Amino acid sequence: MEYFVQLLLGGLTRGSIYALIALGYTMVYGIIELINFAHGEIYMIGAFTALIVSSVLTLYGFNEFAILVLASLIAVIYSASYGFTVEKIAYKPLRSAPRLSPLISAIGMSIFLQNYVLLAQTSDFLPFPALIPEFNFLKNYEHVFSSSELVIVLTTVIVMTILTLLIKFTKIGKAMRATAQDKKMAMLVGINVNRIISVTFIIGSSLAAIGGILIASHIGQINFNIGFIAGIKAFTAAVLGGIGSIPGAVLGGFVLGWTESFATGYVSSDYEDVFAFALLVLILIFRPAGILSVKCEV
Question: If one looks up domain 2-286 in CATH, what number appears?
Fold first, then answer.
């Protein structure tokens, strides 16, 4: 029973990371109905930025809490600026072009960012400091569910809640929903559609950076290629839950995380990706719009 609980909680942690990244995918899709395939690289850049900042602050003798706050804040701002830049370079000039053009542009941006970080850093795996402090909240059960895993899950739930409230009850959230429903009509009523799209990319990139920091701190290492796999898995999670739905992105992340966790625990780690993508195929066959199918909830 303990092994089952361990797999359940491990899948919850893994799914939480997928959910954080998937939220960025689903927000962008909800607004412009296109997939930002450079989103995984923003996740990777956020983690690398936190690594560099935390290393510098450690050299200057900052305490652990200050390092966590400052490294996270700078990484989020830096990643948000990258998200903003990607939208201006890869999407805005192609907004009226055929749908295939911005898709190819986003893939090209993904490859560019991967190689940019590879040349700027290294192809080797680098150690990442444990930015999340350990605390005894479950005595004698730390091996089942650590404090860093608890922080990851709680962060995902809090972010989803805040994002949902932002979309439903704030002025900018209403502007996002209006833009998602009809861009031309939104412009007619005075909404700056270009600004709303940029804000959406900034928010999504910030969430990806948070996910990158959390998972890198939890695993303890980082590499220039981590964004590609995480991005594909998060995209899968967004589709599973119903792309365009914020709760759907989180649910899809959890479902994908549990699928991989139980497949690894009871079958073999070699079949982890097989089960994950087999689940995606089944969902697309029997419920193409996803588990929580909606029409552009963002």
Answer: 1.10.3470
Residues 206-265 have pLDDT tens digits of 988 998 898 888 888 898 888 888 888 888 888 888 877 888 888 888 988 888 888 888
Do residues 294 and 242 make contact, with C-beta atoms less than 8 angstroms apart?
Answer: yes
Round to whole Å and give the CA distance between 265 and 252.
Answer: 20
177-186: per-residue pLDDT in tens? 888 888 888 8
Identity of residue 141: Y
The residues pairing with 127 across neighbouring beta strands, listed in sequence order, are 221
Alpha carbon of 62 to those of 4, 51, 57, 205: distances in Å? 40, 14, 6, 27
Parallel, antiparallel, or unpaired: how do β-strands 126-127 and 221-222 relate? antiparallel
- What are the residue boundaries of the structural domains of the chain, listed by start? 2-286
Contact 239, 284 (CB under 8 A): yes
Helix (H, G, I), strand (E, B) or coil at 123: coil
